Amino acid sequence: xxxxxxxxxxxxxxxxxGIALLFTxxxxxxxxxxxxxxxxxxxxxxxxxxxxxxxxxxxxWAMDAGLIEKxxxxxxICTRMDxxxxxxxxxxxxxxxxxxxxTKLADVREEDKYAALWAYKNGICxxxxxxRFKPDTEMxxxxxxxxxxxxxxxxxxxxEITGFENLSVSSTYYLAALWAAEQKLLxxxxxxxxxxxxxxxxxxxxxxxxYQYHIRSTFPITRKQFxxxxxxxxxxxxxxxxxxxxxxxxxxTSDGYISCDRLVAKALWDLGYTDQGEGGFYGSDMFGYxxxxxxxxxxxxxxxxxxxxxxxxxxxxxxxxxxVSWDPSSGxxxxxxxxxxxxxxxxxxxxxxWSGGDFLCVxxxxxx
Length: 368
What we know:
Helix content is 33%, strand content 10%. The chain is an alpha+beta fold and 368 residues long. The strands form two sheets. It has a six-stranded antiparallel sheet with strand order 3-8-4-5-6-7. It has a two-stranded parallel sheet with strand order 1-2.
């Protein structure tokens, strides 16, 4: 139950699928770099284990992750299309072909149409009355923070934020800046000078995303622990007569309903991930939750392996399962899968045929 959930959330609340973009991994440390080390106009990043992250490191990571094709010029200013394209790639490159037939953005290149349409339809970027996206608009630090805040779903700030010397309540990025400070993305004491109107270099925008996804403490669970937790959940569901459907319980599945994505939610809950909402997560919630908690996302099927959370476009709603092993040459997949009543009632893991043709993306626990 994946794609329909995503479409439903997009229609109702204009949110980005899955990916929640600020890193809040379990057991993570607050970043900590002296404000005196920054260049004038730069945003200060914090990390307790490193003193700085070079442009070369950020570029190498972004290229390895497939977010950019070549190293970013240190002086290049980030444009709206630059940022949207990277976020679109990071979120599995969704292509709404039906929408693209009816909604034409006047000033977007053909190769960027799906990324721009994704941002427009999900309330991340606006267009004018003539359906102009303005892809070459140069972004400020405030613009970048606001875009990431929009992607996150415009969350409310839950604690008082102080320390800004030049942040006006009337600025368009005011709430986004407070949110970024609350998330420990910005230093917010009296030493900090944050000017959201300062033009943001593309390398600094990519650096935001680097910290959101890449910098994390030792991962709190292993792949073996996750697979064993999945097995326990399937046994619990089979022996207690669970039915296929959307769980609304806390913990997830405690109301006797389970599905492919709730299998993942319950396994993680049993491993200590108890910050889930009612019923666990599904669809875009799952994408965002996994990214926020340090799982590594890939759109390369060769990254499917032991303990992988595999997302596909199968059926009307899409599908999720946990891989034990996969042989692409024979199509033999061994997996844990609660995607139907018959699967719930069967002994798992099961061995089936899967060609990989409906593959969407995969999430993995970082290499141990």
